[in-house]
Amino acid sequence: MTSDEYPLQDVSIILNNLKDIASSVMYAAKGGSVEQVLERIAQVSSTLVKARYAALGVPDGKGGLKYFKVAGLTPEQIKHIQHLPLGKGLLGVVMNERKPLRLERMVDDARSSGFCAAHPSMTSFLGVPIQAAAQLLGILYLCDRKDGKPFNDQDQWLVETMAGYAALAITGAQLSEQQSRLNILEERERIGMELHDGVIQSLYAIGMHLDLLRTDEHIHPSDLKSTIDNLNIVIEDIRRYILNLGTSNIKTVYICLRDLLDRLHIPGSIRVEIDAPDEPPPFRPAAFEAICQIANEAISNAVRHANATSISISSRQDLDLFQIVVEDNGEGFDLSKMGTFEGLGLRNIQHRAYLYGGHVNIDSAPGKGTRLTITVPIRAI
């Protein structure tokens, strides 16, 4: 757009106007949500052009408006208006033609659809599309200058320029909201894996233990106390997951694996051996907790499904890699007849390892047991 189209005689006026627009849009962009940004853009636009009324509508893709924010009307006035604009009439013209529209008297334009009941009287109109490339993000329009004069070329230049900046602010707010939704989904997935891999497995083990006690005629009170203590630990885990307080103190690799076994209530018919260093792991607490949950799921699978009499758990590391190996002498299975990571538990194992740059390898055959190896690179995680 050139100065010939919108003659502004003094370059300093242009610069000052651009400065005002930029600062106004920066203020609007800090609104947070898309709706707050839209409302602020309407407010600063009316101030910039000294208009009595300003509004910003966002199309819903169906010929109507998804959002509609106004400036110049009180909440009480808005409450009594029969209905907000539907994206028809002059707004529909701007929306469909995607060109600025400036009218001294709206009623003189045959495309005007008039006002609904309780809508304040308005005379002049200046509307512009807000676009990003070929995408229509909204319609910004103003009505009635406060000095009673019709909108002029300079007003239109200001509002069009404002619309260009507003497109950036709206796009930024939309991206921010999308990122927030994505973060929520990722957090839900993380919590879901935590609950499945840790808490649910512990509850399952406690349930098995209680079932055994139910059929035992010689229950000792200490047996029940141990089970109740473990239930309390699981309840605390649930609270910690919900409150996102997963910042437990670092334990050694051996103690972590030992704790997992204690909480899984391994039946006495299964012999379990641990070969792991009694020293802190080479990871931050959150990362090592996730790795322990992978091991927890693997051990739980061996206890529940393998019909094994022996399970060995070993851990080793070098300068680059950390490994946990869970091996049993159970029934095993034919890898060619099932997906390598079939079932929710194995998918969680794979996905969690992948999140930390690692991988899981399964070696199994019918009658020859199963060996599951978790490998995670040692790096700043």
Describe the overall structure:
β7 and β8 form a beta hairpin. With 381 residues, the chain is of the alpha+beta class. The radius of gyration is 33 Å and the shape is elongated. The strands form 2 sheets. Strands 2-1-5-4-3 form a 5-stranded antiparallel β-sheet, sandwiched between helices. A 5-stranded mixed β-sheet has the order 6-7-8-10-9, covered by helices on one side. It has 9 helices and 10 strands. It is 47% helix and 19% strand. It has 2 domains: 11-180, Beta-Lactamase, CATH 3.30.450; 247-381, 2-Layer Sandwich (Heat Shock Protein 90), CATH 3.30.565. It has helices at residues 11-29, 34-49, 75-80, 89-97, 153-214, 221-242, 253-264, 285-305, 344-355, and strands at residues 51-59, 65-71, 101-103, 125-132, 135-145, 271-275, 310-317, 321-328, 359-364, 370-377. The longest helix is centred in the middle third of the chain and has 62 residues, at 153-214.
